[in-house]
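Input.
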Amino acid sequence: MFHRVDLYNSDLSLRFSIINENEFDPVLSNDPNRYLTDATMFHYVDVYTTSKYIFALYCGKDFKSATPGIGNEMHVFSWDGDALAKIFLDIGLSRFIITDKKIVGINWYENQPIVVYNLPDLSG
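Output.
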């Protein structure tokens, strides 16, 4: 659950980081209330990659309305770190995969079955 996605080369050197515009690092903050700010819940929950895209499940809600570990916003990036799409999901997910042009996910905190969404065309 970090506010960024780090991409590494095969030799484990850092290639680059994808950092969301709501960047917040509680470890580096000097604010004594750093863990209870409105930015606390801005983080990535899960990441899945394909040969063309990086899919990152994002929790972008404030501290009072967020459920830790649940996101309902999917950010799609190229392997060069370019932001390509933002997909809004009507059900919050904690884990997901991409398969057959579909997003398949589950919310670990609810008694819900597996949820399947059609993946929008990203070639555009």
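The two ends are 29 Å apart (CA to CA).
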